[in-house]
Design goal:
Layout: E1 15-21, H1 36-41, E2 44-50, E3 63-66, H2 76-87, E4 92-94, H3 97-103, H4 108-114, E5 123-125, H5 133-140, E6 144-149, E7 159-162, H6 170-177, E8 182-186, H7 190-193, E9 196-202, E10 205-213, E11 228-231, H8 236-247, E12 255-263, E13 266-273, H9 287-298
Parallel strand pairs: 1-2, 1-3, 3-4
Antiparallel strand pairs: 5-8, 6-7, 6-8, 9-10, 9-12, 10-11, 12-13
Length: 300
C-alpha cells in the first residue's frame, strides 16, 4: 500500500489598508513608507492613494489611514467630502471624520483651553482688518506677532509681523488673509531660540519626541522650510504637558502629535495635530513598529 504524504500549506490572505496621501509629495518629507514592512509583518497590505483620486472603491479596504494629504487646506470642503465617502463605506477611517471636523479648524484650541490645557495666548478673528493690526501688538504687549488662518497647514499664509515694519506687507496680507477666520498670537522667542517640541502618541501611548528649530532668520519649523530636526528625550514636565493635551481630546484617536513650546515658565500647546501630522518615523527606528502594532490592535 502506498502511503501518500500531504503537505499542508497555509495561505495567508493579506488584509488591505489604504494610506491617504496627495498627488505629489516631491517637495515634502514623508516617511510613511517606513510603515510598509511593519504592517506586512502583521498581515496588512498597504496601498497609498491620493485623496484627490476619483472613483475609488473604499469598500475594498478594511481601513483608511489619513497620513499626508498636505494640500487639503486648498479645498477643505472637497477633502471633507472624500472623508465622508470613506466614512460611509465599510472601511474604517482613522482618525475618524468626527475628530477631523473637530481638529480641522484651530478653534479647537479654545476647547482645550477651557479644559485647563495651557495654550499659546491667542486672539481669534472672524475676518481680517488691516487697520486693527496695531491693536494686536498692544493687546499682547509685544513688538512681534504671528497671524494665520484657523484652517491651514505647512505654515501656509502664516505671517511673522514686526511692529516697526509690518506696513510693508499690507497688500500681501490683504491678499492672503481676507475672507478667512484668523488667529493672532504673540511671537514666542523660544521658537527660534530653543525650538518647538513634537511628541507623538499612538493609541494614547507615548512613542517618541523631536525638537524642530527654524533656520536662521525664519520662524517656520517645518522641514520643508529648512528647519533642523533632532530626536530628543523629553523632560517629565514636557511629557506631562503632552499627555494632558492628549487626554483632553474629545475621543480616542489612533495617532496624535502634540506641538509645544516653552513660554512664561511652562510648556504651552501650539497645536494638537490629529489629521495629517508628519509622524517622523525616521527619527525613531522602533516608531513604525509601534504604530503598526497600535493600528493592528485598534482593528481587532
Amino acid at each position: 500500500m502506498r502511503e501518500c504524504n500531504f503537505k499542508l500549506f497555509q495561505i495567508t490572505i493579506m488584509k488591505k489598508c489604504a494610506v491617504l496621501t496627495m498627488d505629489n509629495l516631491e517637495n515634502f518629507g514623508s516617511y510613511d513608507h517606513l510603515l510598509i514592512q511593519p504592517m506586512k509583518n502583521l498581515n496588512w497590505h498597504v496601498d497609498f492613494i491620493s485623496w484627490r483620486k476619483e472613483n475609488i472603491d473604499w469598500d475594498m479596504y478594511l481601513s483608511v489611514i489619513i497620513r499626508s494629504p498636505w494640500d487639503y487646506q486648498d479645498d477643505p470642503q472637497a477633502f471633507l467630502q472624500v472623508l465622508s465617502d470613506i466614512e460611509n463605506s465599510s472601511a474604517r477611517l482613522l482618525n475618524s471624520l468626527n475628530i477631523v471636523k473637530w481638529n480641522i479648524n484651530k478653534k479647537y484650541l479654545q476647547e482645550l483651553e477651557e479644559k485647563g490645557i495651557e495654550i499659546v495666548p491667542t486672539y481669534w478673528l472672524e475676518n481680517f482688518n488691516y487697520q486693527l493690526i496695531q491693536d494686536y501688538f498692544l493687546m499682547f504687549n509685544t513688538n512681534q506677532i504671528v497671524i494665520k488662518p484657523t484652517i491651514s497647514a505647512n505654515a501656509d499664509n502664516t505671517f511673522w509681523l514686526k511692529k516697526e515694519s509690518y506696513n510693508s506687507d499690507k497688500s500681501l496680507l490683504e491678499q492672503c488673509l481676507t475672507n478667512k477666520q484668523l488667529m493672532v498670537q504673540p511671537f514666542i522667542p523660544a521658537v527660534v531660540e530653543e525650538g518647538e517640541y513634537s511628541l507623538f502618541y499612538f493609541a494614547d501611548q507615548y512613542s517618541h519626541c523631536i525638537l524642530k528649530t527654524p533656520k536662521s532668520g525664519d520662524f517656520r519649523v517645518q522641514e520643508e522650510h529648512g528647519s533642523s530636526i533632532k530626536a530628543v528625550e523629553p523632560s517629565q514636565k514636557l511629557l506631562d504637558a503632552g499627555f494632558a493635551a492628549v487626554k483632553a481630546i474629545p475621543e480616542k484617536v489612533l495617532y496624535a502629535r502634540v506641538d509645544l513650546v516653552e513660554f512664561m515658565g511652562s510648556y504651552k500647546v501650539m497645536e494638537v495635530e490629529l489629521i495629517e501630522p508628519s509622524l517622523y518615523f525616521n527619527y525613531d527606528e522602533l516608531s513604525p513598529e509601534r504604530f503598526a502594532m497600535a493600528f493592528d490592535n485598534w482593528m481587532k
